[in-house]
From TrEMBL:
Database matches in InterPro entries: PLipase_C/P1_nuclease_dom_sf (IPR008947), S1/P1nuclease (IPR003154)
Enzyme class name: hydrolase
Alphabetic keyword roster: Disulfide bond, Endonuclease, Glycoprotein, Hydrolase, Metal-binding, Nuclease
The organism's place on the tree of life at top rank: Eukaryota
GO biological process per UniProt: DNA catabolic process
Name by which UniProt lists this protein: Aspergillus nuclease S1
Known catalytic reactions: Endonucleolytic cleavage to 5'-phosphomononucleotide and 5'-phosphooligonucleotide end-products
Example of a GO MF term: single-stranded DNA endodeoxyribonuclease activity
EC number in record: 3.1.30.1
Keyword Ligase: no
Family: Belongs to the nuclease type I family.
Pfam families assigned: S1-P1_nuclease
Length: 106
């Protein structure tokens, strides 16, 4: 956060919001969608994270110290996962408070 946003959390949030409305806008509806009949599609989200983790830790050995190269490679993924989590939480809350018992399906 120090290198990219000068330790400014608001700047980081604005960056993620800008990415949602610009760079990732075509993906947002897919993030909200859930084909499962469960409340949250947690299994889908966990599978996504597991796949990303496998890629992120490729070549890393136990007791390795992760440096700047790892951080800079992982930051865009972390920001996108935060954005996905926010969009998905909003979809769940909208469903709960709208009285509609179903999540959007694609």
């Amino acid at each position: 956060m120090k290198d990219f946003f000068d330790k400014d959390q608001d700047a980081m949030i604005e960056s993620i919001q800008r990415n949602i409305t610009e760079d990732w806008s075509s993906e947002e509806k897919q993030w909200e969608a859930c084909r499962s009949k469960t409340t949250t599609c947690a299994e889908k989200y966990a599978q996504e994270s597991a796949l990303l983790a496998c890629d992120a830790y490729e070549g890393v050995e136990q007791d390795d110290t992760l440096g700047d190269e790892y951080y800079f490679k992982a930051l865009p993924v972390v920001q996108k996962r935060l954005a996905q989590g926010g969009v998905r939480l909003a979809a769940i809350l909208n469903r709960i408070f709208s009285g509609n018992g179903r999540l959007q399906s694609i």
